[in-house]
């Protein structure tokens, strides 16, 4: 998706690679598996530092890792977004869905792809809700942080990724 928007991308596999990026997407996957990988070589601590000041976008499991509180079951997180997240709220793999969600992003409703998706059960102060599924937030922002409980990379709609890229550009302009 990012390449289709003209961005040079690479996978960050080592903590020292974080210094080479202007923004980071923490992808979907299995959050407990992510934590096991992040606990090696000081990666978790390096990521904690990165997300405090640099544009970061968490999708699905990435949102779980960014949350202040995680339930069903509880787990460690980066604690950078004042949200409470319930893991696998919308069901198992075979309960995956493609829906259309209302959004404040320009261009009308947003296609949202859910795979074992978490639910944002509560948002704290300063969290901007950009899209909802029923009454639940599914795309949120706070400052330089963006999070989605769905997989925007599985849609042909590039608006969410473009929105994040605009956040990264704005951060670079501020820093310059």
Note the run of SSEs as H and E. EHHEHEEEEEEEEH
Mean pLDDT across the residues is 92
Q: Which geometry do the CA atoms define?
A: globular
| Parts with pLDDT < 50 across at least 5 consecutive residues | none
Query: Quick one: biggest sheet?
Result: 5 strands, mixed
- Please report the total strand number as a whole number: 10
Q: Helical proportion? A: 10-25%
Radius of gyration: 15 Å
As laid out across the biggest beta sheet, the strand order is: 1-2-10-9-8
Given helix and strand content, the structural type is: alpha/beta
End-to-end C-alpha gap: 27 Å
- Count of separate DSSP helical elements: 4
Strand content: 25-35%
Oligomer: single chain
Structural notes for this entry:
This protein has helices at residues 31-38, 43-53, 61-66, 159-175; strands at 24-26, 56-59, 67-71, 81-86, 97-101, 110-114, 119-123, 128-133, 136-142, 145-148. It is of the alpha/beta class and 176 residues long. A five-stranded mixed beta sheet has the order 1-2-10-9-8.
Labels describing this entry:
single chain; 176 residues; alpha/beta; 3-stranded mixed beta sheet; 24% helix
Quick gist of this model?
The chain contains 4 helices and 10 strands; from the N terminus they run E-H-H-E-H-E-E-E-E-E-E-E-E-H. It has helices at residues 31-38, 43-53, 61-66, 159-175; strands at residues 24-26, 56-59, 67-71, 81-86, 97-101, 110-114, 119-123, 128-133, 136-142, 145-148. The chain has a 5-stranded mixed beta sheet. A 3-stranded mixed beta sheet has the order 3-4-7. The protein has a two-stranded antiparallel sheet with strand order 5-6.
């Amino acid at each position: 998706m990012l390449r289709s928007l003209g961005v040079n991308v690479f996978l960050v596999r080592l903590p020292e690679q974080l210094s080479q990026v202007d923004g980071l997407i923490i992808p979907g996957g299995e959050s407990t598996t992510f934590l096991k990988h992040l606990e090696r070589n000081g990666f978790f601590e390096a990521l904690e530092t990165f997300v405090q000041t640099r544009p970061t976008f968490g999708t699905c499991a990435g949102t779980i890792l960014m949350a202040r509180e995680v339930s069903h079951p509880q787990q460690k997180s980066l604690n950078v977004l004042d949200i409470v997240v319930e893991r696998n709220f919308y069901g198992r793999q075979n309960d995956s869905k493609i829906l259309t969600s209302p959004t404040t992003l320009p261009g009308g409703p947003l296609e949202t792809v859910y795979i074992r998706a978490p639910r944002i059960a509560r948002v704290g102060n300063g969290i901007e809700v950009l899209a909802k599924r029923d009454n639940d937030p599914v795309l949120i922002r706070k400052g330089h942080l963006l999070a989605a409980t769905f997989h925007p990379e599985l849609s042909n709609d590039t608006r969410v990724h473009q929105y994040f890229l605009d956040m990264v550009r704005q951060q670079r302009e501020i820093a310059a």
